[in-house]
Amino acid sequence: MRIHPLSTGTVSVKRSFLVAGTGVRRQLDLFLPDEWSGPCPIHCWVIEHEGRTLLVDTGEAATVKNVPFARFSVTPQQELPGAFAGAGLSLADVDEVILTHHHGDHVDGLHHLSAPVRMSRQEIEFIATPFPRVMRRLLRQPLPAGFAPAPLAFDGGPFGAFDRSAALSEDGRILAVPTPGHTPGHLSVICIADEGHHVMIAGDVTDSLEQLLARRHDAVGPDPKIHRETLGTILAHCAQQPTVFLPSHDPESAARLAGTVTVQAT
């Protein structure tokens, strides 16, 4: 098994995005003046295993518009085709795309692909409800044209600390698990590496490893309690099995993958 981190540009976010408040200020602060972070990567991930190529998320597009709490820097050369070429990979070899959730910096690269796409059933149902539809319009963050992922069902039974899972490979070494919080239907992908440790491609379940260890909810998710429960489940899984934790925007994710730095070893 080989896992490749690909970067499709960067994003800077407000401090209130990285360290969320509580109560009504949690989301309100996102729209108020604040300090900005340095550039954070916009990662997506390629998994090569058993003669198949799986892509987790698709990165951002150069046409992305800034929002009150995030400033993007993406050139056409940094989009998915350039990221694949830079890693010596071919978009034509992608057999399937798994989306962790529906936000633009994870789905906007879909227009470069023709492979089948899946996302959790709960996320598909969520994006059809009024609130996310209104927010996409207000923030000028439309879904890509033709956006129609097939629903992924967690029907594979428990896996580690997770009560449900979905196999993504025939040998069961690549699985999706539900990680709600950032969005109600957010999922993560766990790979069982050749050496036996786990690699968790975590999307936006946190912005960093530090946030996971602090069990700190984010500023975006609709229910902070559910988010904190998810972080507890992830930490319980890491306690059972050494796990390399890879949030999409953590500047240290690629280095942790390269060095097999697990949460237990941190």
Number of strands: 12
Mean pLDDT, rounded to whole units? 95
In whole angstroms, the N-to-C terminal distance is 24 Å
User: Fraction of residues in helices?
Assistant: 10-25%
How do the strands of the widest beta sheet line up side by side?
4-1-2-3-5-6-7
Give your account of this protein's structure.
The chain has one domain: Ribonuclease Z/Hydroxyacylglutathione hydrolase-like (Metallo-beta-lactamase, Chain A, 4-Layer Sandwich). The protein has a seven-stranded mixed beta sheet with strand order 4-1-2-3-5-6-7. Strands 8-9-10-11-12 form a five-stranded mixed beta sheet, with helices on both faces. By secondary structure, the protein is α/β, with parallel strands linked by helices. The two termini are 24 Å apart. 24% of the residues lie in helices and 24% in strands. Strand 9 and strand 10 (187-192) form a beta hairpin.
Labels describing this entry:
266 residues; 5-stranded mixed beta sheet; 7-stranded mixed beta sheet; Metallo-beta-lactamase, Chain A
Helices and strands in order:
Blueprint: E1 2-13, H1 15-18, H2 25-28, E2 40-49, E3 52-56, E4 70-73, H3 80-86, E5 96-98, H4 104-107, E6 117-120, H5 121-127, H6 130-138, E7 150-152, E8 166-167, E9 174-178, E10 187-192, E11 198-203, H7 209-214, H8 224-240, E12 243-247, H9 253-259
Parallel strand pairs: 3-5, 5-6, 6-7, 11-12
Antiparallel strand pairs: 1-2, 1-4, 2-3, 8-9, 9-10, 10-11
